[in-house]
Each structure stands twice: as C-alpha cells, then as structure tokens.
Amino acid sequence: MTQALPKVIIHGGAGSSLGHKERLVTLREDLHGIVKQVYQKAEAGASARDCVVFGCQLMEDSPQFNAGYGSVLQSDGQVRMSAGLMDGSAQRFSGIINVSRVRHPIDLAAYLQPAPDRVLSDVGAAELAREMALAPFDPITDLRLQEWMRERANNFQSPMAGVVAGTVDAPEDLEARRGTIGVVVLDMDGRLAVGTSTGGKGLERLGRVSDSATSAGTYANGFAAVSCTGIGEDIVDECLASRIVVRVTDGMTMTAALAKTFGEATANGRDFGAIALSHRGEIAWGKTSDVLLAAYHTGDAVGDTLELNSGTLTGVV
Ligand code: GLY
Q: Whose CA is nearest to atom 4 of ligand 1?
C-alpha cells in the first residue's frame, strides 16, 4: 500500500467571538500542542482510528473544552457526556449518549466499535462503564460549577452554557458559546476516521440528546470524514456531517461541498461549524458561527482558524 503524509484537524468548539485576548493565547497553545501530538502518533504509523481516540482523550482531559473533564452542567446540575466515533475505512459508527462519571467518553464509543449494539445511552452507558471496569471519575470543574451556580441564582435565564471555560475574573458570556471537541485524521495508509465528544449545550433539560453521537454530528467513509460543533439541534436539522461526506462521495470537490452546505445552512439561520478531511488529503472547515476553534497539521505546518472573520466562511488547505 502506498504511504502518504498523514493529515490531522481538530476542533474545540464554535460560537461568538472570544472576547478576551488571553483566551486566544491559551486556546492556541492547547490546540496546537494537541494537534502536534496526534500528528506524531499518525506519523509513527498508528491507524486513523487510534489517532482519533488518542486526540479525543487529550481534548477530554483539557478543562478548557466542553468534553470530558470541564464539561458543562445540565439544568439539574449534573454532567452527562456523549461521544461518537466513526472509522471511515470500515464505514462503522459507534457512540455513547449521556454517560456520567467517566474520564474519557470516547473510550466507551471505541469499545463499542466491534460490538453488535453500537450506540448505548444512559443506563446502558453506565452498565458499559462498569463492564469496562472504568474507575469512577468526577468531570465537574470548579469553574463549570460556578457557572451553573450563577445561572441558578439567575433562575436559569440562559438557554445554554459557555463552551470554553472562563475564569473566576472573566466568566464566559453564557449565551455566547456552545461546544464540543472533534478530531479527524487521514493516516499514512489513506484511511480516514473521526471522533466527536461533548458535554452538550449545558443547562439543557434532562434526557436531551446531543448531535455528537449521531451521524449528523460525526460521519466518515472512505472518501471524507467530518466532525461538527455548535447547536446540536441545528446540526441534526441539516444532517451536517453526513451531508458533506455524501456530497464529496458523489463527486463534488470538498470546496464545492462546503460552499453548498454552508450556503444552505446560512439561509436556514443555523449556528455551527465543522471540520473535515478528504481521502485526497484536503484539510477543510466551515462555519456559520463567529468563531471556530480549530487547528490542523498539514505535515509541513500547523495552522488554525481562531482569528477568521465572523460570519459564514469555508476553507480548504
Ligand atoms: N454540539 C453539541 C450539542 O449541541 O450537544
């Protein structure tokens, strides 16, 4: 099999402008550090799927992002997390919905890849964590707890929580951001894989299901792979990840597929972003939100989308 340079793109959410300049510096540091580590693993010959799981674990460990440790709290003050994983070479999806008290929700999705029942929720997810003998883990950070307490004092006026954790001095604009993390990899053997992990919108009602563990939010085949972030309901309404992948599979260039998809999304008033890779090695992104927190590794250089103009924009490297 011919070997080629791997490609990696990751995201840490989408939303309104970052507000604080210092936030940009720490986010860039975190995203660039993680994309380099994932690239190194891919360069050493790991499969796209293993690289995706590794990248998602790193992002779930960072309290800056709304996934794993640092996830937002739901309206009842609990954290429930979801993750989706798709191996493009096998065109196989697995996912976990509304799991609590685990460190890496992506590990449960990865465990389910070869299983006959590949998407589990709530009680089934808790049962699986026990079966996997995962140590109980409390993903609630002080900042996220304070965010929820402020909302409680304000009688839950905000529709959702902030996607990027703020600081005590600079709490997030609670209406401004919604998030998720995502990792997309093309490995040296030309295989694609994608993973997405989230704490949800935050402050949502009990039982709400995020897009991340559906093929609207996470999708891949042999031609393209896409991870989405933003308002889950908007992502599901557009069936965003599958829509882009199917367009590329049917012969559209990645540039044309993104332009058409994000044109339609803008007309429909959607609020989200997506990152993508094609089997040809095109690294791509699109957004209708003000910012998309994405970083990528081309094999030669690391880049990011942190300071793109607000509004709808797509790009292919
Ligand atoms: N995209 C994350 C969520 O809406 O749950």
A: 232
